[in-house]
Amino acid sequence: MAIADDSAAIWQRVIHFDEELSPAAARALLKLRFSERDHALMNELSAKARAGTLTPEEQSQLDTFERLGSLLDIVHSSARRAEEKAQEGWGRFALSAISIGRR
Questions:
Q1: End-to-end alpha-carbon separation of the chain, Å?
Q2: What tens digit of pLDDT does each residue of 71-84 get?
């Protein structure tokens, strides 16, 4: 029995943090990016793909960039959720402190 699964779904299962990310860890993960050189190369490869002139090696390289881009999206999404959760916690803390100060 063959099981169909795309790599993004697999990566989502792999990139699971057992504990909550600290705000500092989340910010560090959000800084992970492709370099300017890689962006330029991706643009070049994409243009060649649209023109239908990619070599098999270039197609493989473009596929790799796409998979890594999906991986970065998943990591960034997890980091943003961790930051939002931390901000919600601080918001509740601040409201509690305001309420206590009014008593």
A1: 66
A2: 899 899 989 988 88
Q: What is the mean pLDDT of residues 40-59?
A: 97
Residue type, 32: L
Alpha helices in the chain (DSSP H): 7-14, 23-30, 36-51, 56-102
CA atoms of 27 and 79, how far apart (whole Å): 7
- State the helix-helix crossing angle for 56-102 and 23-30, rounded to 10 degrees: 150
CA angle 55, 60, 66 (to 5 degrees): 125
CB of 12 closer than 8 Å to CB of 25: no
Cα 58 from Cα 54, distance rounded (Å)? 6
Shortest CA distance to 66 belongs to which of 80, 84, 54, 81?
54
Higher pLDDT, 24 or 1: 24
Handedness of CA 34, 40, 46, 48 (dihedral sign): negative
For a pLDDT cut of 70, what percent of the chain falls above it?
A: 77
